[in-house]
Design a protein that fits this description.
Blueprint (H helix, E strand, L loop, with lengths): L4 E6 L1 H9 L3 H5 L12 H28 L2 H13 L4 H5 L4 H11 L2 H4 L21 E5 L2 H9 L8 H7 L2 E3 L9 E4 L1 H11 L4 H8 L2 H6 L11 H21 L3 E6 L1
Antiparallel strand pairs: 1-2, 1-5, 3-4, 4-5
Helix pairs in contact: 3-6, 8-9, 8-11, 8-13, 9-10, 10-13
Length: 257
């Protein structure tokens, strides 16, 4: 089973709500992250795989959300879905995933955008509370990027080592490989500064050593010389994501699924 690192930008007030009521963290990561994945050549195959998985999971995710809503909100959302050509009965039967995914991608805001005007609690919103949250998946490159950032297989307390494998745990739900973790705006700003250091790319390229990475068990393994371009592309995606989040004075929540 794959291990994939995902990141979501959230407003500070939303982070405070999630710390108080962490059940919402699972829902935050429920929508497909393909919509926020930077469009690099290395990310294309990952997006395609995520689309397939999202289409499979989307009906159950949405029906679970509907079941937790109060009747008035649920009724409004079902009406919105019907007007958009999505049958709730089909979703409950596990059908319609492709149509639902297509709708979410067209609307850019995913499942949560469908709640607009229905009174639903915002989750996955940007710092303004209105636009869809910025999201990022490093797919299976997360451990390799961590290694190039630090030269270590495991995290330590330094800011660069914390970016992918650190943060403060939020809630008790196992997202797949442990609970989600968060970085408050101050830590996001620190991470953005460290990731943007002018000499970092050269240092990372110098650390790339397929044989050593394989010996250390750097996931996903099978390292060859071709892996460097992939990891550097994903590092740049990560750098841009944290730079944007810092500019927005936002927090970040991450998990391994």
């Amino acid at each position: 089973m794959s291990m994939i690192a995902k990141f979501v930008e959230v407003a500070p007030d939303q982070l405070a709500e999630l710390i108080e009521e962490p059940d919402g963290v699972t829902e935050l990561f429920a929508e497909p992250l393909v919509m926020g994945t930077p469009r690099t050549a290395a990310g294309t195959a990952a997006r395609e795989r995520m689309n397939e998985e999202a289409a499979r999971r989307a009906p159950q995710l949405l029906t679970d959300m509907l079941a937790r809503m109060n009747p008035s909100i649920r009724g409004a959302l079902e009406t919105n879905l019907k007007a958009m050509g999505i049958s709730v009965a089909d979703l409950q039967a596990g059908k319609g995933g492709d149509a639902l995914l297509k709708l979410m991608m067209q609307r850019a805001g995913g499942l949560h955008d469908l709640l607009g005007g229905s009174g639903g609690k915002s989750a996955g919103r940007g710092p303004s509370g209105g636009a869809a949250a910025a999201m990022l998946s490093l797919d299976k490159a997360w451990h390799g990027v961590h290694y190039l950032l630090t030269g270590l297989a495991e995290p330590d307390s330094t800011p660069l080592s914390q970016v992918i494998m650190g943060g403060i745990e939020i809630g008790d739900d196992d997202m797949g490989y442990g609970p989600a973790r968060y970085f408050d705006p101050a830590n996001v700003a620190t991470a953005a500064t460290e990731l943007g250091a002018t000499t970092l790319e050269a240092q990372m390229q110098g650390r790339f050593d397929p044989a050593r990475m394989t010996t250390l068990g750097i996931y996903p393994g099978g390292w060859t010389s071709t892996g460097l371009a992939w990891l550097m592309d994903e590092y740049r995606n990560l750098r841009g994501f944290f730079a944007d989040a810092s500019q927005h004075q936002a927090a970040v929540i991450t998990c391994l699924v």
